[in-house]
């Protein structure tokens, strides 16, 4: 019985240790007075993030964007860098996206015209 429990504990630890640093729950920077919580998880060989909760004017509200994908196919490029696409809810546009990850802080950018014009946000890990 001890061997089975030990094997199960080791399997769980290995799974947690194998998680990519981008995986988890992130809080977006406020955009047009609203912010969201985004769950980032694997989606094929990349990572995607869906809006799980939304907040405005200091309180939670039920945005029609809950469940929408905001981080799209972010592929790891090494050293905390990811590339893919990001969707901006306030204008319903999708941009070339890049992420620079450093521990529990994320710098996310959305760019147009091949990266000539970019907007950036700072996100923080919730858990």
Indicate the topology.
Layout: H1 2-17, E1 24-27, E2 34-43, E3 46-56, E4 59-61, E5 69-78, E6 81-88, E7 93-102, E8 105-112, E9 117-125
Antiparallel strand pairs: 1-2, 1-9, 2-3, 3-4, 3-5, 5-6, 6-7, 7-8, 8-9
Please give a structural write-up:
There is one protein chain. This protein is mainly beta and 127 residues long. It has one domain: Lipocalin. The protein contains one helix and nine strands; from the N terminus they run H-E-E-E-E-E-E-E-E-E. It has one helix at residues 2-17, and strands at residues 24-27, 34-43, 46-56, 59-61, 69-78, 81-88, 93-102, 105-112, 117-125. The longest helix is centred in the N-terminal third of the chain and has 16 residues, at 2-17. Residues 24-125 form the DUF2147 domain. It comes from Paenirhodobacter huangdaonensis. This is DUF2147 domain-containing protein.
- What number of structural domains do the residues give? 1
**Distinct helical segment count:** 1
Query: What Rg do the Cα atoms give?
Result: 17 Å
Oligomerization: single chain
Low-confidence stretches: 1-17
Strand content: over 45%
Shape: globular
CATH class: Mainly Beta
Signal peptide: 1-19
Domain DUF2147: 24-125
Pfam families: DUF2147
Keywords: Signal
Distinctive features:
127 residues, mainly beta, Lipocalin, 8-stranded antiparallel barrel, 9 strands, 13% helix, globular, disordered N terminus
Summarize this entry quickly.
Keywords: Signal. This protein is mostly beta strands and 127 residues long. The chain is built from one helix and nine strands; from the N terminus they run αβββββββββ.
